[in-house]
């Protein structure tokens, strides 16, 4: 399970229940935008572990690096993005582990769709507008299974559409003839065509109304139970993740600042940014409360200041927060299976008590 070399942060990210084996391990992944002597560091040694059968939610504001992480891990990052370090270990259904960043182009093409697939945010931008849905699904299947006859691939395409709740006769439709929800379901069907081990969903319901969001999420969760794949669900909507995810990793300014079970993040956030995200949407149950939000704006990653990137917006910032970058580690309460990058949890246990909002 372990690579030859582990940094402290990578080792901590592996903490979790031993019952489920890791299927995807992102270790110390770093990404820059731009070349030359002054690139923008958009991901800084990000480590995540996705376990078999798990739904891992990745949450954070726009621009925090969620999609960059997904594209870098699958080597779909367009220029001027540049992966500057790290490893992405994927375990296929045969139990063989491979670093996606070290695969040849041919090996990577074989692994995509078969072992790992991604559902992009904009279905209309992902589907070719001049080809029918049938051709786009069938061509993808045949490309990975050249021995399969096209008639068999068409039957598989029809089965996939029915799997996501679309009539098979819609195979003859063009993308513009489908509603937004149907196009997104087509993208999910294409991603599941070869029954991958890992499905990455990059804000798949952002452009849809809440009713369609609910339908698509319920279908994905049902398919996950039936087919047994693991999911990385990327969104800025923490309230959505509380309902569908097993664990949540919260990102800010290109780093993971907290990771824990979804119910624990919702009930007792430990990082001030996590608490701010939760205070930005109304509670689903209980009495009404005033929405607080998070003051200020995300930092400019091209002109990054020393210390914690959240310090200028944090209501609990201390002097050390403005000079030293916190390391992802155990909380002040010593909780198992929870990691947080905050100086409150490295100093509070020996100096001052935690704020009430972070010590419930």
Automatic annotation (TrEMBL):
<dbReference type="GO" id="GO:0005886">
    <property type="term" value="C:plasma membrane"/>
</dbReference>
<dbReference type="InterPro" id="IPR017871">
    <property type="entry name" value="ABC_transporter-like_CS"/>
</dbReference>
<dbReference type="InterPro" id="IPR003439">
    <property type="entry name" value="ABC_transporter-like_ATP-bd"/>
</dbReference>
<comment type="similarity">
    <text>Belongs to the ABC transporter superfamily.</text>
</comment>
<dbReference type="GO" id="GO:0016887">
    <property type="term" value="F:ATP hydrolysis activity"/>
</dbReference>
<dbReference type="Pfam" id="PF08352">
    <property type="entry name" value="oligo_HPY"/>
</dbReference>
<keyword id="KW-0472">Membrane</keyword>
<keyword id="KW-0547">Nucleotide-binding</keyword>
<keyword id="KW-0067">ATP-binding</keyword>
<dbReference type="GO" id="GO:0005524">
    <property type="term" value="F:ATP binding"/>
</dbReference>
<dbReference type="GO" id="GO:0015833">
    <property type="term" value="P:peptide transport"/>
</dbReference>
<dbReference type="Pfam" id="PF00005">
    <property type="entry name" value="ABC_tran"/>
</dbReference>
<dbReference type="InterPro" id="IPR050388">
    <property type="entry name" value="ABC_Ni/Peptide_Import"/>
</dbReference>
<keyword id="KW-1003">Cell membrane</keyword>
<dbReference type="InterPro" id="IPR027417">
    <property type="entry name" value="P-loop_NTPase"/>
</dbReference>
<dbReference type="InterPro" id="IPR013563">
    <property type="entry name" value="Oligopep_ABC_C"/>
</dbReference>
<dbReference type="InterPro" id="IPR003593">
    <property type="entry name" value="AAA+_ATPase"/>
</dbReference>
<feature type="domain" description="ABC transporter">
    <location>
        <begin position="24"/>
        <end position="278"/>
    </location>
</feature>
<protein>
    <submittedName>
        <fullName>Peptide/nickel transport system ATP-binding protein</fullName>
    </submittedName>
</protein>
<keyword id="KW-0813">Transport</keyword>
């Amino acid at each position: 399970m372990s690579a030859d070399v582990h940094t402290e942060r990578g080792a901590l990210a592996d903490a979790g229940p031993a019952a489920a084996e890791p299927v995807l391990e992102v270790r110390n992944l770093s990404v820059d935008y731009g070349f030359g002597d002054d690139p923008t560091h958009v991901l800084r040694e990000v480590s995540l572990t996705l376990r078999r059968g798990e739904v891992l939610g990745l949450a954070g504001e726009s621009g925090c690096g969620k999609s960059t992480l997904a594209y870098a891990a699958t080597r779909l990052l367009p220029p001027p993005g540049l992966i500057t370090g790290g490893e992405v270990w994927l375990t296929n259904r045969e139990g063989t582990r491979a670093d996606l960043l070290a695969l040849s182009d041919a090996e990577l093409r074989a692994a995509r769709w078969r072992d790992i697939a991604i559902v992009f945010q904009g279905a209309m931008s992902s589907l070719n507008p001049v080809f029918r849905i049938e051709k786009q699904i069938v061509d993808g299947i045949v490309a990975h299974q050249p021995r399969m006859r096209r008639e068999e691939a068409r039957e598989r395409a029809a089965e996939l559409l029915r799997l996501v709740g679309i009539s098979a006769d819609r195979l003859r439709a063009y993308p513009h003839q489908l509603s937004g929800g149907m196009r997104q379901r087509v993208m999910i069907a294409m991603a599941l065509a070869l029954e991958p081990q890992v499905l990455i969903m990059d804000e798949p319901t952002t452009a849809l109304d809440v009713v369609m969001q609910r339908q698509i999420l319920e279908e994905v969760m049902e398919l996950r139970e039936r087919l047994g794949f693991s999911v990385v669900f990327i969104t800025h909507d923490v309230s959505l993740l509380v309902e569908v995810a097993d664990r949540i990793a919260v990102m800010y300014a290109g780093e993971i600042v907290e990771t824990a079970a979804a119910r624990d993040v919702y009930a007792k956030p430990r990082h001030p940014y996590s608490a701010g995200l939760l205070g930005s949407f109304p509670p689903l149950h209980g009495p009404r409360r005033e929405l607080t939000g998070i003051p200020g704006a995300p930092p400019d990653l091209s002109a990054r200041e020393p210390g914690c990137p959240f310090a200028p917006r944090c209501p609990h910032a201390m002097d050390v927060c403005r000079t030293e970058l916190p390391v992802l580690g155990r909380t002040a309460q010593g909780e198992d299976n929870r990691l947080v990058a905050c100086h409150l949890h490295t100093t509070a246990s020996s100096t001052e008590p935690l704020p009430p909002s972070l010590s419930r």
